[in-house]
Amino acid sequence: MDPLKSQLLHLGRRLRLVDSWQLAQRTLWWACLAALFFQVAGRLWPIASLWLWTCLPFLVWAVLVAGFALLRPIPPMRIARRVDFTLSLRERLSTALALQSFGEAFPASLVQAQRLDALAAAQAIQPARDFPLTWSRRSWQLAFALIAVVLALAFLPNPMDAILEQRAAVAREAERQAAEVENLRQEIEKAEQLSPEERQELLRKLAELAEALRTNPGDLEQALADLSKVEQALQEQLDSNAPTQQANLEALAAQLQALASLQPDPNQDQIAAAAEALEQLAEQMASMDEAQKQQIAEALAQMASQAAQSGDQALAKSLSALAQAAQAGDAQAASQASQQAGQALSQAQQRLADQAAIQGALSRLQASRQALAQAGSAAVAQAPGQGQTPGQNPGQGQGQGQGQVGSGGGTKANTLPPATRQGKASRPQGNAPGAQVGELPGQIYIPRTGGSGDGEEFFIPGQETGQGETQVTEGQSPLPGGANPALVPYNQFYYSYLNAANQAMQQSYIPAGLQAYVRQYFSQLEP
User: Fold this and answer.
1) pLDDT for 99
2) Which residues are registered as beta bridge partners of 488?
3) The pTM is what?
4) 286: buried, middle or exposed (CB in 10 Å: 19+, 13-18, 0-12)?
């Protein structure tokens, strides 16, 4: 290799090092400023792994400086001109390179002499002495000042640590509850008493809930909202008459066995025993006298009335038809009605099994919601220094002002002391969509669903003919409660108030301990 070019490349590496050192000093304060930004932002918003975000600007700064030092090309001519200018060599090195490229127009002896002079000048250069690494005092002072502020913020208590701890606890609990939902889903998938349509719909909702909980980053409100959404969907499928129908079904099965003179078998399914009793009654009607048929008809009519009162219209209709066939002595109609009654009993048992499964899933989801709320509250309660204002004792605080939602300290006690604030309370502030708190269009009530019939009338002997019995139940009138009409279901306004409360907690200073009380309050009012 040409000795002159080799010497220039050696000088170029030193120049690249000097340039990189100057660039590092000039840009270090930018990395410090970015780290300070992350530290300040971490005190305004909860940022996970704040230390990593604080160190990230320095890592990016080091990579950029190293890339500039290693990858920046410097041509030999530029090196020669820079060395000539810095060391006042009167363009010896750059002239030698130029004559090497265009030397045909000059005498060879002149070109050779100039080249030897340039090579001697280049060999006499000491890179460390002639191109030293200088320090920029101003740049380092600014960088050290910013680093001191960053370290001070990093080691001082951060109020966002409690929120991060709460999110971590909620994320862990959400993962555990997702596993519980998966277990519940497997149990429902193996349940044979559920109807296929009900099973598939319930499995779909539980799968979506498990995925939402599994991917939850620690947002307690979102996790509770996902649970409440599935709970509300299941609550709408519940029949408030299911317990009454269950008790009525068991009573009818026992009455049918007694009417058919069958001995109850504890090991036999009640519905199967009732269907067997119906078939036995249909076979026995051919050998009964008129008095026995009349007695059977009255008993069946009474059972039909009980089924109608419990909301099972199909069973009531089939028992009414069986009672009419027994009264008329029509054996063929009695056999057909007994089969219809057996099918109605099976359908009723299927519906009750669905209701039991939905109720069990709803109970498990409510337990999961309570576990999530408790996990968030426990994380807030364990966070040190929350709910205190500097210069005050724990649990003490006073707020002044008018129309403010709290401006003092807080408490972590299980029960709150009497309020000692001054001023007027105002409504929660917030502009969330749908979170409007104003005058309600009517009174609020809790909707209750009941069994509804198909609108078809059927005849029950004993009501129009004077047969059967009449049951009278005395009750209190008016029932306890307000006398005004209730027009609006409260679940239509529950989420509006919940959103308004969340907006108020986000936009106003409320101690974290008191926020847990608000969440628990709305959790207990969940429709």
Assistant:
1) 85
2) 444
3) 0.49
4) exposed
